Input
Amino acid sequence: MCTHPAGKGTGHLGYGSCEVHGGLWPQNEDAWRQAMELAKIEGIGPTEALLKLVTASMGRAAYMDLVLEAALARHVADGGDPLIPPATMRPWLKESRQERMVAGRMAKAAVDAGVMEALGRRLDMEGGLVADALTAALDALELEPAQRMKALGAAQERLLSAE
Ligand SMILES: [Zn+2]
Output
């Protein structure tokens, strides 16, 4: 376990990982910068703001998937090949991929920040959110199925021991 104060030597002192445990990674600095901004605007804590960003980003990605599904269904109904999506879908496919990456990075920052442990106490309430965040983080890592199972197992163990 790290003995440094949270966020030591980073731009997010008081929150998240310290300088030697990933706190300085650009994706973490960036996620926390956005979380701090949102926290100030909404008068909430930075950790809560970070989680809000994760959910918002995943919500946008889910919305884009919905649009894509509908577009593909229309394309197929009009006699199109489901394996050759129409050109009009291309920008949405790109957006969806980017949004998932953003969500993944946010979720990863949340995991690094120990938000999972903080949530452990409220797991009954937030269990679904944690699962979603974890899935997004794993998606972003593009793991092999076996590695993914291992990562999930480790996360589960950590979550259970955080109670
Ligand atoms: Zn540390």
In short: The pocket of zinc ion is lined by residues 2, 4, 17-18, 20-21 (CB under 6 Å).
